[in-house]
Design goal:
Length: 120
Amino acid sequence: MTTNLLAIINSSAPYNRNLGKESLDVALIFASFEQGVSLFFQGDGVYQLIDQQNPQKISAKDYLKTFSAFEFYDIEDIYICQESLTVRNLSESFHIDNVQVLPPETFAKHLAMHQQILRF
């Protein structure tokens, strides 16, 4: 893993507020200017990557489809805290590929390799 400029921590549920959408927007903006971006999902933020969500049932816009653009923007470093999945009794069934599920210690080590950290 190379040291990236920006780490974005997603710790909010996807449709609770606009934080998930805002973090995605920031990631894509930085990546479009070829700045290194890594995404971290912990706490309720892990729900953003869980497969087969249906936001239309709560009249929400499905911004999660935009995650498929990560490959186009060269966003390749995507990490999930294993403990967050375990506590929520969630499987590793994600709607995007190339996600690394890490134990808390390793998750923290990867996070520490970044120059700037934003939490959403």
